[in-house]
Q: What sequence folds into this?
């Protein structure tokens, strides 16, 4: 009997937010790793050299090959919306993450399977643990 690969989670965020959200991104990565879910933060690892079509094809390929998608939606971002739309079309569960003081997005809320609205890093960690504990690990 072969071993099943760990589930992969695509973490979507606005490219210009990656530095501002550094502690939150790290918290999400840490919790996912604790639950044997492989995180992929495309915005942090892909170096954009001006070929937008190549970048989006690569990003969307990763979305399609993921088992779930976490989307930071503190600020509106077309790229994150596209990634969420592709995940939704491929029936990949979507978890949106936003700070409590940020306004909700009806579009994002309308297609997500779970929403994490957090006050601080401790609250984000607690809610991530609660979600991951119940995520199917077949």
A:
């Amino acid at each position: 009997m072969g071993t099943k690969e760990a589930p992969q989670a695509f973490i979507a965020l606005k490219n210009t937010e990656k530095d501002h959200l550094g502690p939150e991104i790290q918290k999400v990565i840490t919790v996912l790793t604790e639950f044997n879910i492989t995180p992929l933060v495309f915005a942090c690892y892909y170096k954009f050299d001006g070929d937008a079509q190549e970048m989006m094809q690569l990003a969307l390929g990763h979305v399609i090959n993921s088992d779930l998608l976490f989307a930071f939606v503190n600020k509106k971002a077309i790229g994150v919306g596209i990634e969420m739309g592709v995940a939704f079309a491929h029936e990949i569960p979507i978890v949106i993450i936003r700070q409590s003081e940020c306004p909700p997005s009806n579009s994002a809320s309308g297609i997500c399977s779970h929403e994490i609205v957090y006050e601080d890093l401790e609250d984000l960690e607690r809610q991530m643990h609660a979600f991951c504990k119940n995520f199917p690990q077949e």
Q: What stands out?
A: Strands lie at 8-12, 38-40, 68-72, 94-99, 114-118. The mean pLDDT is 88. The chain has six helices and five strands.
